[in-house]
């Protein structure tokens, strides 16, 4: 009796193992090359990492689910390139943990929205999109301008980013909290540190027009304004792939 | 280093296909093996039977 | 339900719950951010509430030894009811989300009620809350019946149901307050993910233990599908959720993957979640409940096996069709496209097998709305897989991607296939489990059927229309060679379709509420007849085995 049971038990486990093997070989064969894919990612020597304020803004973008309506991936199709700019390259999202390519365009693509509008436009738009685009179906995000940013543990964020492979220096990690507020205070002492660590081209300003505090809106706009601007590679090689689509 | 990537891609494209074909063949042989017909028919009927309680 | 546990199991349940409560309390006390504290409290309170439940039944007399001679169905009963609660909740949110796209001010200036937070509440609530609970509940039923064996113990199934719903609760409450990883269908943060792994392993071991006790030498094919569902979902979940938390006292983590690699991993996950959660699991349901309800064996058992292996090994390769024309290498895209086309074969084998089974029983389909739910589900399964394979072709995807066409495809599968097959299975199961000859009101089943079908059709047709219009407007050029429409123009064009979709969704939601009422009344009449609360009903209820014999009822 025991023997009989034993055999049956082995049988169902064997079956389970078979399912795992069959299913995972397919996945593995397809995915394995992608773990060496960084070898095929175009070099982008001018690429910089997100500043702490921009990273905080990115986290707000994630928290509010902006990705549910906005893609950040311009496909290599003619109409997309004409509408949104040069198509997205793999290099441009190499520091994005996780990527925010999106799968639905209820709103327009944002991969290259950085610099397209003024900060002020964004402030008005985020507070009530219908003030600038009367037909818009985008939600109003009034609470972002009310909420102060909580920077207390931002060094931990940069440390974790470092662990997953983003090239933040130890100095950047150590100064994360100061840099966070420094970037939104152009007149403050901390601003210089941000420029020194993240490059002269970094946007240093009071993004949300309220100099008294650093809000979530400051962070979000800092992030929006850098989208598509971390590297210039996409602009330097305008046509590498043949574009497809209607004429 | 590019060599490694190319190699993996090559492997995926060629052996992946063989793997798939072989597997498909195996499954078809198993399901259509004549002596397997009886147990399969029995299994298909088995759920229709009365099933008030577990078998002792 | 505590009365059914042996004294030792009661002790063990108590211990496990204390452990969970302690972990929750520790999270709440040490938590370094507010959100983490909230989740600690939710865990603590869920465990505490369940502890009271256990205590309240702790001193009941130990269960009858006779119990071991019956299938253990209380967890299935509970699972079905929980699934229906999730269904109504998540469809309500889904419809709210739908109205939001027509009238954006319906957020009322509250962060938790904004589109970006409600949408994942809808998707998680419906896929995991409704779909997951329905799969778990029916799998418990099916594996016991087809193995002719009882659950090995009374506690494990409850652990699975409690633990799984705690996971769903953490997930959904997290989006409301702003905890998310942003990975579609894998939004919950690291601690919830770890918790799900523990529960899922318990589930898998339980499943294997029932199979190991089986008195039937052959494992019925429905179990294969359920097993593939359990196993592959475990692999997908673990790989895609690899992440580094910023600390053990924070909710936030950063994904181990980035950029293209992350995109590929995410859609390998996303597509296979469709395959093994929304397809394999529900095919398991189909292969058991449809033949039972029709009273005829499956048309071809062999086809069901071929279909099984086809689905198991073709799906894994197809994920990249979510990333056509992106920065992903082209060869991976082509691979995904090819396999998506091949997927049509096992998919249609399954759909065809289901429909052929009904050949010769069409009069039953006409008279029995329960069976009709299953029949229409099989049709929509065939339809949405055909559509999927079509959309996977690169030039087609160039048009459909990013548009409402995808949403139409999703809901042809989700409403037409997943939800309908589940409702069919539940309407079959409820009378069997509560020992009734039939549902409280077959009329209301009929009403639900027509509401669900019309809701689905309205939804899907409006999204096909809006999606294709949207896609065409984005790529239309005028004579001077510039783009003819601005984005906002295409958005305005969507408005009437969004309203139509929301109305279709409302139909579907009302149908589900009617279903809840009907189920509730069935349970109540069972209770009144038995004169005892349903969970304590001994397995030999009022109806004789003859009456419960499935499928034979007209
Ligand atoms: C009352 C019925 C339902 C309504 C009104 C509804 C409504 C919606 C809406 C408005 C969206 C967002 C679409 C967008 O972003 O444009 C959505 C997304 C989604 N829904 Fe539903 N839904 C319903 C039922 C279901 C069911 C039963 C399921 C699954 C079993 C489901 C699965 C999904 C999924 C997976 C998505 C995400 C699609 C994507 O990202 O492409 N829905 N739903
Ligand atoms: C042969 C079977 C199928 C194939 C080849 C297939 C293919 C596809 C394709 C090409 C997309 C669009 C990807 C994009 O452009 O972003 C898609 C999206 C989707 N499909 Fe299917 N599909 C199949 C069956 C199903 C079924 C049965 C369901 C069940 C509900 C389903 C659920 C979904 C979901 C939820 C999405 C949206 C993912 C997202 O963007 O969030 N599919 N599918």
* Secondary-structure class of chain C: mainly alpha
Number of DSSP strand runs of chain C: 2
| Average pLDDT score of chain B | 76
Class derived from helix and strand content of chain B: mainly alpha
Q: Helix amount of chain B, in percent? A: over 70%
| pLDDT averaged over residues of chain C | 91
Shape call of chain B = elongated
Q: What fraction, in percent, of the residue positions of chain C are helical?
A: over 70%
Strand content of chain B: under 5%
How would you describe the oligomerization state of the chains in this entry?
heterotrimer
**Quick one: which chains have the greatest interface?**
A-C, 93 and 97 residues
Q: Number of DSSP helices of chain C? A: 17
Computed over alpha carbons, the radius of gyration of chain C is 24 Å
CATH class of the largest domain in chain C: Mainly Alpha
Task: Describe the 3D structure.
Chain C: This is cytochrome-c oxidase. The complex is a heterotrimer of chains A (247), B (56) and C (554). With 247 residues, chain A is mainly α. Chain A folds into two domains: 40 residues, no CATH class; 193 residues, Cytochrome c-like domain (Cytochrome Bc1 Complex, Chain D, domain 2). Helix content of chain A is 43%, strand content 0%. With 56 residues, chain B is an all-alpha fold. Chain B is elongated and about 60 Å long. The model of chain B has no long low-confidence stretch (mean pLDDT 76). Chain C has two domains: 69 residues; 484 residues, Cytochrome C Oxidase, Chain A (Up-down Bundle). Helices cover 73% and strands 1% of the residues of chain C. Chain C has a two-stranded antiparallel ribbon with strand order 1-2. In chain C, a hairpin with a 7-residue loop joins strand 1 and strand 2. Chains A and C meet through helix 1, helix 2, helix 3 and helix 6 of A and helix 3, helix 4, helix 6, helix 7 and strand 1 of C. The complex binds protoporphyrin IX containing FE (2 copies). One protoporphyrin IX containing FE sits at the interface of chains C and A.
